[in-house]
Amino acid sequence: MTQPTLFARASGSGRAGVAVFRISGPLAAHAVRTLTGGLGKPRYARRVEVRDTDGSFVDDGLSLWFPAPHSFTGDDVVELQLHGSPAVTQRLASALEELGLEPAGPGAFTMQAFANGKLDLTQAEGLAELLEAETKRQHEQAIGNYRGALRDRADNWRRDLIAAMAVLDAAVDFPDEEGVPEDVAQRARPAVDAVQASLTTTLEQAAGARRLAEGLKVVIIGPPNAGKSSLFNALLRSERAIVSDEAGTTRDFISARLEWDGYLVELTDTAGLREDATSPVEQAGIDRAEGLAAEADLLVICWPSGEGELPDWLERWRGPQSIVVRTKADQIAQLSAQDLSLSVITDVGLDELRALAASRFAELAAPGMAPTQRQAALLSEALSSLCEFDRFALVAPEAAAECLRAASRSLEVLTGRIAPDDILDDIFSSFCIGK
Amino acid sequence: MKHVPDKRVLVVGGGHAGCEAAAAAARMGADTLLVTHRADTIGEMSCNPAIGGVGKGHLVREIDALDGLMARAIDQAGIQFRMLNASKGPAVRGPRSQADRKLYRQAMQSLIKAQEHLTVVEGGVEDIIVKEGRCCGVLLASGEHIEADAVVVTTGTFLRGMIHRGEERTPAGRLGESPSVGLGDRLEGLGLPMGRLKTGTPPRLASSTIDWDRLETQEADSQPVPFSFLTASIQVPQIACGITHTNASTHQIIQENLHRTATYSGALSGKGPRYCPSIEDKVVRFADKPSHQIFLEPEGLDDDKVYPNGISNALPTDVQQSFVHSIVGLEQAVLVEPGYAIEYDYVDPRALTRELELRAMPGLFLAGQINGTTGYEEAAAQGLVAGANAALSGSGEGFSVDRSEGYIGVLIDDLVTLGVSEPYRMFTSRAEYRLSLRADNADDRLTQKGIDAGVVGEERAALFHVKHSNWQKLLSWSRETKLTPPQAETIGIRVKQDGRRRSVLDLLSLPDVGLQELDKHFESLARASTDERAKLEAEATYAGFIDRQTADIQAYRQESAMKIPADFPFEAINGLSSELIERLKKTRPTDLGQAARVEGITPAALSLLLVHLKKLPRVA
Ligand SMILES: Cc1cc2nc3c(=O)[nH]c(=O)nc-3n(C[C@H](O)[C@H](O)[C@H](O)COP(=O)(O)OP(=O)(O)OC[C@H]3O[C@@H](n4cnc5c(N)ncnc54)[C@H](O)[C@@H]3O)c2cc1C
Predict the structure, then answer these.
(1) Domain boundaries of chain A, sorted by first residue
(2) E strands, A32-180, where?
(3) pLDDT of residue B534
(4) How many CA atoms lie within 13 A of B264 on its CB side?
(5) Which of residues 479-508 of B touch A (CB under 8 A)?
(6) What pLDDT, in 10s, does the model give residues B170-206?
(7) Structure confidence at residue B277 as a pLDDT band (50, 70, 90)
(8) Interface test with B, best of A150, A378, A398 (most B CBs within 10 A)
(9) CATH 3.30.1360.120 correct for A6-118
């Protein structure tokens, strides 16, 4: 089979000032020579005019030449920086197709990199996340995975488990030997305990790391006219909105994604809560708001200043995952002693709320190993095998060794010792086109 | 049962590999010739007079399940049967017995004689005959040519063997027997990858000169368990071994004379077995150990020679004498034969297929120590597989055991995948499916497979079917016989009063319930054979694991089903380092699972291989 040469616009679709086109494979050099009349020095930018095969001018821009194997994919790669108009994209694509190149599917470049040994499986998974990263902290975490942090940790666990297994096996395979201790399980214990503890921590941290990767849910609740929407809008203005709201699908709630102190946050404003709904429609809105509140990582409870203490039906949401905000603080003189007073008109309390929330985020979403679902399942599997060690150590050393063998096998699968096709497909299909 | 018509198989060497190879080929129906230097050394134990052990005993049971000879021979010659690891779980119990060397030789020779289609020819093989790239016979030292459809070479330590003792060097295959030089040169001439290994043997002592009264002893088991599924009971009288230890002055004598031992003077370049070190090695490597244990094993019932297990060495005779005399009980011991080390050629087994045929020379099979293993059991297991395949040679069929079916599979897969860096010995830790591959169930795992391949004779086949159905009955009985909590209480077993009825097997899996407790209440248990009892115990003890292992085995089979074509161009995979490509080309794995076991293969390399096998880069 001859290897295809692939191309794609690597910098996203649509209009843009500049777009990067990546071409990778055996025909890359030939194609670029044909379209620009040369290739240039490896890894140096070169000013080029792109003309299609019949010589008509397409665009001018920059060309970068990365000869194999020193390229992202490990094959010959050329990257063209051209104007990002749909017309240029279109014309370049037809010129390249005419030369026998093929448009790249999702993950195809990464797959090439993988096939050339440039990345391993956990790194490829890290890369997928890296490309999705929206905030600074997500980015740091994905970089860790991309560089193989989880793989390194799994390799270390496995190495320690195999060493512990060797202690047990010595007793099994050399029964007539002197100097092989009787209480082998006890001698293997410290290593097993250490791996078990480290696995447990990683899994515990994983929840926080996933929150970092997937975003924290902040939900605003309160009665109608408590100033929820004003607060929502004030936060949107002060934090960096990532995707402006597309909600409005229902009038029950409205959400926006924003970067809040480096964390990805999904901020949701809900329909007003009250004790007795006046209509079934309103009741439905309240139910939904309560559902969102229950799943929130952080709840912002609004209650106007000057209305006395919170009623019971609102008070019950107060807890470690909530911040109570007394809104409209500009309208009264006597501020709450217990809760945060805030006014979107005078900006009183807004910075305080932001800081308070950010410190909650820091507790909830610690950067760390963020295993994917596949990886987390294998880590749990390894952990549950280790949890049986003590029980079987009492039965027989070979049974205890079996627990260790099972655990180290799960870790092997994690690092991709044998990656069944479906896993490969899964991982590579999570890329968008041109990566 | 299949028969291989009109095929002639020629086996070179009458050691442990050769005997099994010849007998297996003959059972397959091939007209078989066993060519060896001397018919009276057939079945000779070159070193330690013992068969079995942990891992090794498993192999013997498997050889027997495939109707091989070794288990039957040791049952007629064993003078100290012991079940090793008896206090541990059934998976790692290993039968072992010391042998009366003479009885063992006699037993083996009579089994060979009784085998149909098998003829013994005395002679030394000098060369092989090659026609059109295929091995089709041998040339004897006498000048005689013998043609054959396939040849199995099992020459042990004889390939350019060289004995070292102190400063002396003597070309030899074993003490007093000349080496095979012509054959060694020939194999090298084929361009096969070869190397040197070494092994050693201790001096033999005169029993009458040992002060037995001052020594501890180790007794045989009171109820010897036979190796063979065909043997009803052991008739040979059982004896005890003596135990003594080296001491500081022994170590000093050895230290002072290290420069005179071949091993440390640099004369010996081959690698020795790490697991069975010479006494020089022990003294140097474990310098802080004040003493090392020695088992004094009589070589026979009416043999005055004693094998002191633990002090193999290549020191000059006078030094051997003085260090032996420094040991308690051996002060007056006479050395009947001094110890020595032997260095010999082996062929890198990665040059072989799973059928143990040389990829570079169809029709030529290798088995035993020549492939870099050590030990009688390892040799015999390979012999059986090579012999069966030699009989099938050219038919397009092959006989192989995989890693999930038996230790034989683990052994051969390790050899042809990893090669060897030191003499290879079997351990249970090499088997990833250890809980399923037990000595007690070797026949359940392999006999039917052997019947289908034609390597198991009719007598055993008939017996197996009866035995197997008895076991199935016992197993169902143990699952179906159920007791309520009060009923369990009446036989002295306390369980939760939850109204749940528990089967005999359930009760057996309780931590403090053993077979002994149940025997007196259930006649079917008391009557069950040792193997059946071990199998029940395994069912109860390993219940949770067996399911998981079954899933692992399934995954293993899936990996094995992903075949790699024989001409797959590993060098065309861009991302693989040249070192890995070299290793893959040496082993030429035939499937993805085997590739995963090649040394140094990383997960990344493996997924690469998978991607290239599937030609995946065209993700759409
Ligand atoms: C000194 C010594 C020490 C050992 N120590 C240990 C130990 O400590 N532990 C352990 O596990 N194992 C040990 N072994 C190894 C064990 O003895 C062997 O692994 C086992 O016997 C190998 O079996 P085999 O069938 O491959 O070869 P062998 O049993 O050696 O048989 C080879 C046979 O081939 C015949 N033969 C050779 N060349 C020719 C020819 N050209 N033509 C015709 N016939 C030929 C010979 O006569 C002999 O019958 C030792 C071996 C020796 C020699």
Answers:
(1) 6-118, 123-212+370-416, 216-364
(2) 46-51, 57-66, 77-84, 102-103
(3) 93
(4) 19
(5) none
(6) 888 777 788 878 888 888 888 899 999 999 999 999 9
(7) confident
(8) A398
(9) yes
The amino acid present at B283, given as its one-letter code, is V
Closest in B541, B542, B574 to A116, CB measured: B574
Rounded CA gap, A11 and A101, in Å?
19
Bridging pattern class, strands A322-327 and B50-52: unpaired
Residue B115 exposure: Cα atoms within 13 Å on the Cβ side: 32
Place of tokens 């094959």: A75
Residue of A5, A172, A387 best to disrupt the B interface, most CBs of B under 10 A: A172
What is the architecture of the domain spanning A123-212+370-416? Up-down Bundle (1.20)
pLDDT reported for residue A431: 53
What token pair was written down for B136? 């089709």
The per-residue b/e assignment along A6-42, b for 16 or more CB within 10 angstroms, e otherwise, is bbbbbbeeeeeeebbbbbbbebbbebbebbbeebbee
Q: Order of strands, edge to edge, in the sheet holding A340-341?
A: A240-243, A253-260, A263-270, A216-221, A298-304, A322-327, A340-341
Which of the given ranges, A84-98, A150-164, A343-357, B433-447, has the highest pLDDT on average?
A: B433-447
Residue B518 alpha carbon to ligand 1 centre in Å: 46
Distance CA B427, CA A245 (A): 65
In tens, the pLDDT along B129-177 reads: 999 999 999 999 999 999 999 999 999 988 888 999 998 898 887 777 8
Q: Who among A105, A388, A402 is closest to B619 (CB)?
A: A105
Task: Kindly provide the residue ranges of all beta strands, DSSP E only, lying in B175-332, ordered along the sequence.
Answer: 194-201, 204-206, 216-218, 241-245, 293-298, 305-309
Q: What is the largest CA-CA distance in chain B?
A: 83
Q: What is the tally of helices (H) and strands (E) in chain A?
A: 15, 13
DSSP B137: E
**Identity of the residue numbered A46:** R
Bridge partners, residue B307, by sequence? B297
Dist CA A385 CA A388 (whole Å): 6
B450-466 exposure pattern, b = at least 16 Cβ within 10 A, e = fewer: bbebbbbbeebeeebee
Q: Where are the alpha helices (DSSP H) in B425-529?
A: 442-453, 458-480, 485-490, 504-508, 515-519, 523-527
Are the beta carbons of A59 and A88 closer than 8 angstroms?
yes
Cα–Cα distance measured from residue B167 to residue B607, given in angstroms and rounded to the nearest whole number: 53
Nearest to B370 by CA among B320, B446, B430, B423: B423
Least confident residue range of B30-44, B483-497, B562-576? B562-576
Mutate to test the pocket of ligand 1, among B35, B376, B377, B420 (most ligand atoms within 8 A of CB): B376
CATH classification code of A216-364: 3.40.50.300
DSSP reduced 3-state for A185:
helix
Q: Calculate the CA dihedral of residues B418, B419, B421, B424 and round it to 10 degrees.
A: 90
pLDDT, position A419: 47
d(CA A177, CA A170) in angstroms, rounded, equals 9
Report chain A's terminal Cα–Cα distance, integer Å.
Answer: 23
Q: Looking up tokens 């011991």, which residue turns up?
A: B333
Domains of chain B: 8-200+344-458 (3.50.50.60), 204-340 (2.40.30.260), 459-559 (1.10.10.1800), 561-615 (1.10.150.570)
Q: How many CA atoms lie within 13 A of B92 on its CB side?
A: 28
pLDDT at residue number A246: 41
Which residue has 């899994």 as its token pair?
A203
Question: What ipTM does this complex have?
Answer: 0.85
Query: What percent of the residues of chain B are helix, what percent strand, and what percent coil, each to the nearest 5?
Result: 40, 20, 40
Q: From the list B434, B548, B592, which residue is nearest A398 (CB)?
A: B434
Yes or no, beta carbons of A419 and B603 under 8 Å apart = yes
